[in-house]
Amino acid sequence: MKNLDKDLKLLAGPILVLIILVVLFLISGKIIFDNMNRLNNNLNSENNSLKTLQQKLNSLSSVNETTTHESQIALLALPSSNSIFPAISLIQSQANNLNLLIVNIQATNLPDSAKQGVNSSQIDFEVSGDYSSIVSFINNIKNSTPLIHFGEIKIDNSQSVYSLTATVFSFWAPLPATLPQIDKPIEMLTSDEQKTLAAITPNIVSPITSSSSASPTGKINPFQ
Fold this sequence. Notes:
Elements: H1 2-61, H2 65-77, H3 84-97, E1 101-110, E2 119-129, H4 131-142, E3 148-156, E4 162-172, H5 191-200, E5 220-221
Parallel strand pairs: 1-5
Antiparallel strand pairs: 1-2, 2-4, 3-4
Helix pairs in contact: 3-4
């Protein structure tokens, strides 16, 4: 009996070490298994993201010259920055090209318009000259970029020449500040947006460059 107790005491140490090693092995195996599962999940997620990105790249690579041209037309018609000065430059240039006298140009930004997503400004001015030149001036402004909308037109011929008193509006909208998430599909133009773009494209005239812009005439107060 004494020998059995002695043998058990001798085996207690190795058995305890063996138990500890088995426990450590099980814990290490669980940690390794969990890490492998986490790595596999991350790898699958990355693969899905890469597939989505590749699909977007394929869609973008299929964009033809017509779509690119339409995008350029849209940016010309509706600039991403304040269009008040390009609009004034356009009005002055068209008036000078038609030998019209332009005076009393007054412009102001309309703060309330930003609530609708599209900013706008109001420009008031007077031009005088012969009737046919005034008609051509109005048509040229309506078919130029940036888009300008006539809000009020008054033509008077009480003097020796015709005079036009007009209120027009120009527009601009900032580009998106963030890109869509990688797993979101590309949003295309709606049918109404495509119809609008198709309607304005044939009449778009290139904007007046700074080299051909006329020098200011009359009273100009763009911050009134």
